[in-house]
Fold this sequence. Notes:
The protein is α/β, with parallel strands linked by helices. The chain has eight helices and 16 strands.
Amino acid sequence: MVRLTLDLIAKSKNHFKKKRGLSFAEYLKTLTHLHxxxxxxEDIGDLSMCRNLTVLYLYGNQITQICNLDFASNxxxxxxxxxxxxxxxxxxxxxxxxxxxxxxxxxxxxxxLEQLCELKELHLENQRLxxxxxxxxxxxTLLSLAESLCVLNINNNNIDDIKDLTVLRELQxxxxxxxxxxxxxxxEDVFSLWPQLLQMDLSGNxxxxxxxxxxxxxxxxTNLEILNGREINELNRQFLINWKACKEAKKKxxxxxxxxxxxxxxxxxSNMGQGPHPGHVYSHTMQRWKPEQSLRAHKLNISxxxxxxAVSPSLINGHGDA
Length: 322
């Protein structure tokens, strides 16, 4: 088993080179960057003498657990992608950590980040999950990152909803490509609460196949500059925003008319009870009014009226008006 220890650092040609008057212990105190990527490392040993370490590269190894980093209170960047890590543990003392790379591991739950109040970037793409499993988020961790996190990458993790991420209102870059997001209304609700969002990638999700999904997201994300790798034209955005506002205003007006009982008259309603104009054609119970029918009806009405006048008792008795 390959273990990252001080002895391994001492043997590395890329690190300790003894300088005149500088001991190994003194060198470790000045060390800020440690490069041990793709070295088949399976475990992290005691590195507590490297107290000024700020950047640690451990990607591409066989590490299964994050451990022995309590000493690294000055660490700002931690690269541990492409390992075999199953849980996010033992990071509570890394209060200055700003970038955390944990992509391509075996993490099923995002947790254990409650103390990382300065974390700005979190990369969790391509977790090697069990069949049917999806990446989940601990609400406590999300809440603790709400005021700091600016970049989140959760590509290809079988995620089908992001409602839990609503609290991350400082996000500027969001990548959730190749997941199972399908509900456009849910996405609109979440993105409307991310006013700082500048770049977003949702490519490879079912929602991208829905009609006008891009237009709808552009109108919701008013500061978005890039969507799925394509820049957003500002004139196009303004047109879509104005179109949406006009549509909503019209809908609101119609709703108000319905609630107050002010129904919009049908084009034919103004002629109700008067009969059609000569030559007018309309549909009623799948029948058409024809000009000759209109003329015939008028003749019948006149004949009936003359008949009633002819037999009026008042006229017979001589009491009618002259």
